[in-house]
Amino acid sequence: MSFVVKGLLRSYNVDEKGDEHMNMFSWEGWWTSDMSSFFSGEKAVFSIDAIENSELLIITLADFEEMTLKVPVMDRYFRLLFQNSLITKERRLISSVTDAAEEKYVRLMEYSPQIIQRIPQNLIASYLGITPETLSRIKKKITLRK
Amino acid sequence: MSFVVKGLLRSYNVDEKGDEHMNMFSWEGWWTSDMSSFFSGEKAVFSIDAIENSELLIITLADFEEMTLKVPVMDRYFRLLFQNSLITKERRLISSVTDAAEEKYVRLMEYSPQIIQRIPQNLIASYLGITPETLSRIKKKITLRK
Description:
three-stranded antiparallel sheet, Jelly Rolls
C-alpha cells in the first residue's frame, strides 16, 4: 500500500476488450493500492499510474500489521479512512446507476470538488462513465446557467 | 447502525423511475446501515427491508463514537469490517462493468457463497443486475457442466 507524499495517481482496471474503467484518484495525504490484492496476496486487478510526478511511501502488509498492533490509534485512522472510502464508493455506485450524466457531474462537484479542480477532463469523463464530449457539453451548460 | 442478531436484511435504493438497485445483504453477525447517513446525519438514500424475521441491536452515532474511544479494539474491529466491505464493493464494481452475466454469477459463487445459499433467486438476479430468467438459464448451464 502506498501513501502519496506528492503527486497524483489513478487506479483503474482494463477489461477483456481493452477498455479502461476508472476506480479512484489519489493525491497528497491519500493512500493507494489494490486493496484486495494487498490484504489477500491475490493477483492485483487494478493498475496504478502516476498522472503527475509523484513521491510515494510504500508499506508492506507485514509492516502494516505490525504498525496497527503496536500503535492502536492507526486502527482508528484506517477505520476512518476506509469508512470514508466506503461512503464515497456507495455514493458513486448509486450515482452510476440512477443519475443522468449531468447529475453525475453535479454530484462530483458537490462531494469531490478536488477531482474537478485537479484531474484532466478526459479522466473525469472516464471516472463518470461518460464521453469527453458529453462532459464538455455539460460544463458549458452549467457555466451558462450561472 | 444495526447489528443483525438473527435474520436477513437487504439494503437498496430506488431511482426516479421507481426501479430498485440492490446495495447489500446482511445476516447474523453483520452490520447494516446507510453508512453515509449514519456518519454524516444527512438524509438516507438506502432503504433497508427484512427478508426474514430479524432481530437487530441498534447503536446511535454518539454511542458508536463513545464505544470506539473507550474500547480502542473496536476501531480495529470496524477497520477490518470496513476494509472487507470495501474489497467486496470494489470487486462488485469491477465485475459489474467488465463481466458477462455468467461470469458475474461464477464470481458470486466464489466470493460470496452464502448469498447463493440463502438469498431468494429474484434478489440474487437484482444484486447481479440481470433478469431472473437469465439467472435461471445460467444456473441450468452450470449444473449441466458438472
